[in-house]
């Protein structure tokens, strides 16, 4: 099996057709094939690997060089995407081999964390990934937002096409990256696709001279739905300003839908707001994201409570060895000496703790480690529960 990295233009005849077959309606029209050229710039900085047999491309996988916030630290992240195998070449281990090499290369080029949207979570759990919360969809009628129209709020809302306001939006997502656990954003070469497609409206809320809220959206029809993307807010005034803007669509659309993080509680926004909040996870079309550490170095210096544990990392190609984790200074330190309760963790187990998505006892129950009660108490102090919000969809 030959695995090699593609040069940019090679994608047109190798990875793009496989991905189009895997992820789009097909067979493609001639226009669609010609549109491949337009995608090239948004892929140019990705690492794309292919498996070739007899000169034919059998499978492909890419990594997008992104950045992610892990408990306050912004780290280079490998966003795994575009994983596809030719229908005649499936179930022969091609993707397994590709992923191994892709993650080797991404870790060696300085990416200590990785995330993806799985076709099947159990396949990626064996690669050390653990599930993260899925964004929720909140649906409500603009009529129920009416009370906001009577409130005087500090700050302003700006309304424009994303093609015009893109720089403002990008700089606010950079702020969310610095401030929000789990938040990940694309590199510039990929992110500008949002500006260039220009198929969204953008509203931004400015409070005290700073952009503290943003929402991109489209409207499907008169009397239809205002379809919002992720509601990004760093402040309650900003949220209220954006919802107040949406309230003005009462005579225009029947429904509003917004993507919200798992820790956002729309039922508490207003009295008498009838709202349906849904997280739908289904295979293969509606996946919850997954993430993993590719290097224990990602942990060094993260904020932590006062715990100490000696962990042995097992069953993984990228994370191994025995490490003493010490949080007594308020920051995680990786050392080698001293007594401490012992624990055995898989890569998915450690990733679950680092991202804050599972309690140590749940790690044990899920078979992602051997965690006794004493070690569980220490781990709970080292890795308090946290709700990551990935944001980027790839
Ligand atoms: C999903 C997809 C990428 C898998 O590609 P693949 O090359 O078949 O993947 P692999 O062969 O490495 O592994 C797939 C399964 O085949 C199994 N397998 C691997 N070698 C095998 C063999 N020789 N015989 C039988 N099964 C085998 C693997 O173990 C795995 O199953 P498991 O998780 O139950 O163990 C491919 O089916 C596809 O392109 N689907 C459409 C697009 C898609 O969904 N992409 C993923 C989006 S993230």
Topology:
Elements: E1 2-5, H1 15-23, H2 30-43, E2 47-53, E3 56-70, E4 73-85, H3 94-108, E5 113-116, H4 121-125, E6 130-131, E7 136-140, E8 156-161, H5 162-179, E9 184-185, H6 188-197, E10 201-207, E11 210-219, E12 225-230, E13 232-233, H7 236-247, E14 255-260, E15 275-278, E16 290-293, E17 308-314, E18 321-326, E19 333-335, E20 342-346, H8 347-355, H9 360-365, E21 369-370, H10 373-382
Helix pairs in contact: 5-6
Structure description:
With 394 residues, the chain is of the alpha+beta class. It folds into 3 domains: 2-111, 3-Layer(aba) Sandwich (Aminopeptidase); 136-278, Aminopeptidase; 294-382, SCP2 sterol-binding domain (Nonspecific Lipid-transfer Protein, Chain A), CATH 3.30.1050. The chain is built from 10 helices and 21 strands. It has helices at 15-23, 30-43, 94-108, 121-125, 162-179, 188-197, 236-247, 347-355, 360-365, 373-382; strands at 2-5, 47-53, 56-70, 73-85, 113-116, 130-131, 136-140, 156-161, 184-185, 201-207, 210-219, 225-230, 232-233, 255-260, 275-278, 290-293, 308-314, 321-326, 333-335, 342-346, 369-370. Strands 1, 2, 3, 4, 5, 6, 9 and 16 form an 8-stranded mixed sheet that branches. Strands 7, 8, 10, 11, 12, 13, 14 and 15 form an 8-stranded mixed sheet that branches. Helix 5 packs antiparallel against helix 6. The protein is globular, with a radius of gyration of 23 Å. The site of coenzyme A has 16 residues, from strand 4 and helix 3. Residues 22, 59, 83-85, 90-96, 118-119, 123, 284 line the site of coenzyme A.
């Amino acid at each position: 099996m030959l695995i090699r990295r593609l040069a940019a233009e090679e994608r047109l005849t190798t990875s793009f057709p496989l991905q189009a077959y895997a992820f789009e309606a097909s067979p493609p029209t001639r226009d669609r094939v010609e549109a491949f050229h337009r995608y090239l710039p948004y892929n140019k900085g990705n690492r794309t690997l292919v498996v070739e047999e007899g000169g034919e491309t059998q499978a492909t996988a890419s990594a997008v060089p992104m950045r992610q916030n892990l408990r306050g630290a912004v780290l280079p992240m490998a966003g795994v995407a575009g994983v596809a195998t030719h229908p005649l070449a499936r179930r022969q281990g091609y993707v397994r081999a590709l992923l191994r090499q892709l993650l080797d290369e991404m870790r060696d080029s300085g990416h200590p964390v990785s995330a993806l949207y799985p076709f099947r979570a159990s396949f990626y759990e064996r690669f050390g990934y653990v599930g993260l919360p899925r964004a929720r969809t909140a649906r409500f009628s603009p009529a129920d937002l009416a009370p906001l129209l009577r409130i005087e709020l500090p700050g302003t809302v700006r309304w424009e096409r994303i093609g015009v306001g893109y720089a403002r939006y990008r700089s606010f997502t950079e702020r969310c990256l610095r401030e929000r656990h789990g938040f990940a954003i694309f590199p510039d070469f990929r992110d500008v696709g949002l500006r260039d497609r220009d198929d969204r409206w953008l509203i931004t809320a400015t409070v005290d001279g700073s952009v503290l809220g943003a929402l991109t959206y489209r409207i499907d029809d008169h009397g239809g739905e205002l379809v919002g993307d992720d509601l990004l807010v760093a402040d309650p005034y900003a949220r209220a300003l954006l919802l107040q803007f949406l309230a003005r669509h009462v005579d225009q659309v029947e429904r509003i839908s917004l993507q919200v993080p798992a820790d956002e509680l729309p039922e508490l926004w207003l009295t008498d707001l009838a709202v349906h909040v849904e997280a739908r996870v289904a295979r293969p079309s509606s996946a919850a994201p997954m993430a993993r550490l590719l290097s224990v170095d990602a942990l060094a210096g993260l904020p932590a409570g006062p715990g100490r544990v000696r962990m042995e990392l097992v069953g993984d190609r990228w994370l191994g060895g025995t490490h003493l984790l010490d949080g007594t200074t308020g920051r995680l330190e990786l050392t080698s000496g001293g007594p401490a309760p012992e624990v055995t963790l898989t890569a998915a187990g450690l990733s679950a703790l680092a991202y804050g998505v599972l309690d140590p006892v749940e790690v044990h129950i899920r078979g992602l480690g051997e965690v006794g009660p004493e070690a569980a108490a220490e781990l709970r102090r080292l890795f308090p529960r946290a709700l990551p919000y990935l944001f980027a969809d790839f």
